[in-house]
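ugh ok fine here u go
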Amino acid sequence: MSERQPYATDVSDERWALIEPVITSWKVQHRSVSGHQGRPEMREIVNALLYQSRSGCQWDLLPHDYPPPGAVKYYFYAWRDNGTDQTIHDLLRWQVRERRCRLADPSLVVLDTQSLHAAAGVPAATTGRDANKKVPGRKRGLAVDVLGLVIAVVVLAASAHDNAAGIALLDKVVAGTEPGAVKKALVDQGFKAAVVDHGRKVGIEVEVVQRNPGDTGFVPQPKRWVVEQVNGVMMVYRRRVRDYEHRPASAESRVYWAMSDRMSRMLTETSTPTWRGA
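structure:
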């Protein structure tokens, strides 16, 4: 790594050791025709992506002591398109679960959606307006385990019904876990019978958790509260506070990078900057 002043978002040697094997394997499989491996160090590419994730800056506003924005962008898109970002995320998730004496895949997941405003310039074709929450932009759906680790993520136009997000999430959960591992999913009342029916088709019991009629304001519900916590964690990563991505797939990749950052800190017992003084 080149000599420079470190940023709070840079990966430590211990955290890089968790990620580096996947990146090195990808690099070996994607040699250029000339055999040249490129100038940017892969660790610095990851550092730049994590800096952008936490700070929320535009590509061209990445600090000059990182690799050129075009190079960082190239690897972000390449890893998004071939699933390297999700591979890193899933390997870290399995390690966190193993450390907590859990099986690699959970038996219970919690589903929820959150509507986010879209930034100026985000294509109108991939956005919409959430009629219920009055939010123009995109809808992010998460499936998480009871530890608050992401199992699946989908990003749709905010105008999409929660049912569409729920069905897509269930499909991703089934595709991304061992057959029959996930047996139950908890959802709120925004999800309807279509999600319950789809759950039966894919072998997952979907339970709609009813809100206590006597509750007013936000009242955490047993087990389901963990997905609200994850939504809160996403707000620490400023690139996720508003949807700046032109493609929903990029928005999904940002979730994987944010969670990979968090899980690598969990595994190395490294504190996460809160930015409260920012």
